[in-house]
Structure formats: C-alpha cells, structure tokens
C-alpha cells in the first residue's frame, strides 16, 4: 500500500471514529418514559430496544475502527490477520476497518476458524463474570 492510499484510509477511519464517538454520547437519550397508554408503552419499549441495538452495533463498529487505527500505527494495516495476504483496495474502500481478506472473512462468518473477535468477546464475558 502506498502512502496516498494509507492516508486515504486513515482519513476515512478517523472520520468514522469521530462520527461514532459522537453518536455514542447520545446514550442519555434512552430514557424510560412512563405513559398511561399501554399501547404507547409497547411502542416506546420497541423504540428503546431498537436504539440500544443501534448503540451496540455502533460500539462494535467503533472497536473495529479503533483496531484498524492501531494496526496503522504498528504497520500491520491492510494485511489479512488470518492468511497474511494483502487485503484488496476495493474491499478497503468499502470497509476500511477490515481485518481479513474477503475469503477469510467469509470463513470467519461461517466460524471455520477462531477469529480474534470471539476471544475479545470471551474476555469481556470473563470481565463481566469477575
Ligand atoms: Zn485472508
């Protein structure tokens, strides 16, 4: 990857990180509203659930973006973490925080190998259990 490409992806990642960090500050918007109307309550509960799911997704994405910026700092960015092939620019254009080439990503999605993601998750479970 040349410097121009590197700078381009870095800019994309930093913009995404800023966008996501800003969005996550809206967590306070999820308030529990009391309403006398049962139907409204069901609707509000649904909206809250949706908002929480979105936050989860954004927090997850933010972790991926930060991971990519870390790999930029240590020089491993743009290389598949599983097979160590270069990740195609076309894939990085669409998903600049990608850590696997498309083939390995598909294998990871089918859980054909232990991805670092799932160990991250179990670390969190361990933390929560402690
Ligand atoms: Zn790969």
What can you see in these coordinates?
By secondary structure, this protein is mostly helical. The protein has helices at 3-24, 38-74, 89-94, 102-109, 116-129. Helix 1 (3-24) runs antiparallel to helix 2. The radius of gyration is 19 Å and the shape is elongated. It starts with a helix and ends with a helix. Zinc ion binds next to helix 4.
Features:
single chain; 130 residues; 0% strand; disordered C terminus; binds zinc ion
Over all CA atoms, what is the radius of gyration? Answer: 19 Å
Q: Determine the N-to-C terminus distance.
A: 42 Å
The dominant shape is elongated
Number of helices: 5
Task: Give a nutshell description of this structure.
With 130 residues, this protein is mostly helical.
């Amino acid at each position: 990857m040349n410097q121009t490409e590197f700078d381009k992806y870095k800019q994309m990642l930093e913009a995404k990180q800023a966008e996501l960090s800003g969005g996550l500050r809206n967590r306070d918007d999820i308030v529990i509203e009391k309403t006398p109307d049962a139907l409204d309550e069901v609707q509000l509960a649904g909206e809250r659930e949706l908002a929480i799911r979105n936050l989860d997704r954004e927090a997850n994405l933010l972790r991926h973006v930060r991971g990519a910026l870390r790999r930029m700092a240590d020089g491993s960015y743009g290389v598949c973490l599983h097979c160590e092939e270069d990740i195609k620019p076309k894939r990085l254009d669409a998903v600049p925080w990608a850590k696997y080439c498309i083939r390995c990503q598909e294998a990871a999605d089918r859980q054909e190998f232990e991805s670092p993601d799932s160990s991250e998750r179990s670390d969190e479970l361990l933390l929560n259990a402690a």
